[in-house]
Amino acid sequence: MARFSHHFLDELKSRLTLSDIVGRKVKLVRKGREHGGLCPFHSEKTPSFTVNDQKAFYHCFGCGVHGSAIDFVMETEGLSFPETIERLAGEVGMPLPIPDPEEAKRDARRSTLAEVMATVTSWYESQLRGQNGRHALTYIQGRGLSDATIKRFQIGFAPDSRTALKEAMTARDITEEQLIETGMLIKPEGGGASYDRFRGRVMFPIQDLQSRVIAFGGRALSSDVKAKYLNSPETSLFHKGATLYNWARARKAAYESGNVIVVEGYMDVIALSEFGLDYAVAPLGTALTEDQIGHLWRMADEPTLSFDGDKAGRRAAARAVERALPLLKAGKSLRFMIMPDGDDPDTLVQREGLKAIEKLIDQAVPLVDMLWQNFIGGRDASTPERRAGLEKDIFIKLAEIDDENIQKLYQSEFRSRLWRHFRSDNGQSQNKPSGRRAPEFRQGYWASVKDQHKGLRPNPGRHAVRASGIAATALGRATGSATVPIRLEKLLLATIINHPEILVRHVEELADIEFGTSEHERLRTGIISETAIIDHLERETLLTRLHDAGLARELNDLFSHQLKSADWFATDEAALGDALIAFEHLLARFQHLIVASEVMEEARRDFAEEMNDINKERFLARKEQYDKMRQETNQADIKDFGLESNKTQPI
């Protein structure tokens, strides 16, 4: 055991989640804040085995066995202590300490340094109560803190002197080197005498998980000081990215409440404790790190992060979402509490009491909602290209989630949200027509079509499609005997079935189309009926439901012939953004063919009624125009069209 220092073992235990380790051998069931199951150490039919992640121990009320994660692995797998440590350290990515006779000395030295910090803490406390600290005590009491709270958090005062701490500690046989090593003294690089790091500041001790003081945070009382708050530097005791302020005290309260809240600063933590909320912690001047998030998840499954309501606070919240996203795993997430403008937890609890804070905690937003808002907030998705860009950004970000199952669930959730978002027209800019097109928009579209056909007035009637307004392209130009080529209808339906998310924007257009065959009519009706009740728009789900609805023959006919290479956009391998753009061009092509057909038919009737040269030339010109539209082949003539499908897409 001498090979592993107490410091190393404490760090290892802090990184382990006991229920994960026990869960490999025992089927555990969550019961409140604990897990329960059948004891692996004796035969029983009624579960009496309990696992507590917050307290990091297991206990059987039947046989009395009790221990830690290390004990459990040793007992259930027959490993020695060193073998167990090596295995667990490997699982959490901790390098094993190299056998070194000096390590025991360093461990002993750290213990000595912790004793130094305890002495410094006591001295700072005495200064707060002395003559030099009178104004500091008045300031703290003015912030609404009781004497009991001041004592509980061991708040002290560093006199405004370059050598007051140095002189007091050396008088207590603490060396200058020890004070420099703990970060309490600064030794100038260019030479000269060392001096106190903290001067004229209210002092907040920072503890490790064993409640030992390892560092300090100091709050300046003078407005002339550049740094309002100052933390200890990195030392052999203190690593700020792996430490949380108040985490030792908060663990018990977090266990009892099932929650832990992360606030910005020391005073927020202390003020909440003053009002009875003891499960608050704070990072130490930096954004949350991976280590800190891991510590939070060992305290509660869904910690609540508090942020200011201003732009800076929301940016910080967005950074926290991005930091946590790759780390998500089953049962572990974050919630976000946005403070009212101009408030922080300290000011709000002082003004309105604890209920105001508890209300905000109850209303905290899940991480999935924060991520969604980060994507759509203020973003214009009024065009196919912008919608494709939004979807691309979303699914590239979701690909960062390491847990494969969580990633798939997030992708499914965001597909559903995109459907609802676009369907409710939130994706459109305020300057664009939304939902069902306004009459003046439809009139403008039909006017543009009539201009193309020299002012003739077709009656769109039951064939009308609310066109997307995209100009006619070369997509969908095919031959056939019907008004609209059957192959074009097949392309429309195949694109929709392979990419049902397209219905987010075009369910009404699909409903208005009159297809040329009864098989296609049935498929269209089935697609709209099924997608109306499907929570998540996914190809496999839609295909299954269409088969179950008795449309297997229609589907087999639709996909029985291999698509041409020019029709790649209709396959399930095409990127959603490309399929969406292509579908909208197909719709426009469909509409123009309907109009051209009716214009030609009107010219034919005119020629039949009065067979003169003018009517004949008009009819032949309309027929030539219509035939040309039918005979042109599919082409992708859109700028940058197809680029998305040439990239790796997580859609």
Average pLDDT, all residues = 80
The unreliable regions are: 426-481, 633-641, 647-651
Return Rg in Å.
35 Å
Which overall shape is indicated by the principal axes computed on the Cα atoms?
elongated
C-alpha termini separation: 51 Å
Helix proportion range: 40-55%
Assembly state here? single chain
Return the structural class.
alpha+beta
Beta-strand residue percentage: 5-15%
The tally of structural domains comes to 5
* Overall strand count: 16
The order of strands across the largest sheet is: 1-2-3-4-5
Number of helices: 26
Largest sheet geometry: 5 strands, antiparallel
How does this structure look, described?
With 651 residues, the chain is α+β, with helices and mostly antiparallel strands. The protein has 26 helices and 16 strands. The strands form four sheets. Strands 1-2-3-4-5 form a five-stranded antiparallel β-sheet. A five-stranded mixed β-sheet has the order 13-12-14-15-16, with helices on both faces. The protein has a four-stranded antiparallel β-sheet with strand order 6-9-10-11. Strand 9 and strand 10 form a beta hairpin. The chain is elongated. The two termini are 51 Å apart. The relative contact order is 0.05.
Quick structural overview:
It is built from 26 helices and 16 strands.
Defining traits:
single chain; 651 residues; DNA primase DNAg catalytic core, N-terminal domain; Dna Topoisomerase Vi A Subunit, Chain: A, domain 2; 5 domains; 16 strands; elongated; disordered C terminus
